[in-house]
Amino acid sequence: MLEPKDLEILENMMESVVKKSEKSILKQVDEKILKSEGLLLDEIERTRNILEKKITKVQQNVDELYKYYRITRLENENISLIVEQLEDLTRRVEILEKRTA
Fold first, then answer.
1. Contact 2/10 with Cβ under 8 angstroms?
2. CA separation for the pair 93, 47 (Å, rounded)
3. pTM over 0.70
4. What single DSSP character describes residue 75?
5. Cα–Cα dist 67/85, whole Å
6. pLDDT at 11
């Protein structure tokens, strides 16, 4: 059987080994966490870039649609004015036809 002093020495050696092992494991875990964080941040940045490009494209499409809307609205207003003038001219021609008939 081991003497108490030998047991104490053995216990201290075991604690030392366990502490070194624990530090090593924690260091490895920290490194893996940092690597994972880096990969995650890279992926987030890549996704952000993709989304920004898509948002830019959508904004360009919206701008084009707005231009088209403005042109169409102006054309419709112009057509409405032409129709009003045509109706007025038709009414005036009808009046003149009644006077000359």
1. yes
2. 68
3. no
4. H
5. 27
6. 87
